[in-house]
Design a protein that fits this description.
This protein has 200 residues and is α/β, with parallel strands linked by helices. It contains 7 helices and 8 strands; from the N terminus they run E-H-E-E-H-E-E-H-H-E-H-E-H-E-H. Helices cover 36% and strands 20% of the residues. The two termini are 17 Å apart.
């Protein structure tokens, strides 16, 4: 029998959000009996409704409805676009009305994460608006508790609403130590909550 898994679903253009996803997966992997499943979504074409790109040759593969339907928990991440999630992630979520009608995600834990190019780039509003469709699905939102030391120290990304990354000029995709620590903690916490819920 396969272990229950946390779906880490993200959209990233400059790899900052992707790096958060990878660190969240490391946190999930700390919990015995829980697996991490990393998935992404395809870009939305400006010419047609949606691109028909093939599954990438490397990196995370595109998310399917089954990946989402069968997860024990969800970490949802996106690059920030004007204080909101990027269009490809919103497009994917807009196709999940069938899962909503089936109550497929009700009672499952979820967290959100994002990255932006500037410190006032709308990180917190992005996280809050990403929670809205998850609440409609009946998911249980997990934030970051202030008991985490990195949440008090960070001078880049990291909020009680979820993990964030602030791009720096030298290497925009590289996470700070605090961002990496918070991402691992978020994954570990999400997996622990999912495991407790899954076992009942």
């Amino acid at each position: 029998m396969n272990n229950p898994y946390i779906l880490i679903l993200y959209y990233s253009r400059s790899s900052g959000t992707q790096n958060l996803a990878l660190h969240i997966a490391r946190g999930v992997d700390k919990i015995n009996g829980m697996d991490a499943r990393i998935r992404t979504v395809p870009p939305v074409s400006t010419v047609v409704e949606r691109t028909a790109a093939a599954v990438p040759d490397e990196g995370a593969i595109f998310c399917s409805k089954e990946d989402l339907r069968n997860c024990a928990g969800l970490a949802l991440g996106s690059a920030t676009r004007f204080g909101n999630m990027a269009a490809p992630m919103k497009y994917f979520l807009d196709t999940t009305a069938d899962l909503w009608a089936e109550n497929s995600l009700v009672g499952k834990p979820a967290s959100v994460f994002c990255s932006s190019a500037s410190i006032h780039g709308g990180q917190e509003s992005t996280l809050l608006t990403m929670m809205v469709p998850l609440l409609h699905h009946g998911m249980l939102i997990q934030g970051l508790p202030y008991q985490l030391p990195a949440l008090h120290k960070t001078r880049s990304g990291g909020t009680p609403y979820g993990v964030t990354h602030l791009q720096n000029s030298d290497d925009p995709a590289k996470l700070s130590d605090d961002e990496a620590s918070l991402a691992v903690s978020a994954g570990e916490q999400l997996a622990q909550v999912a495991q407790r819920l899954f076992s009942h």
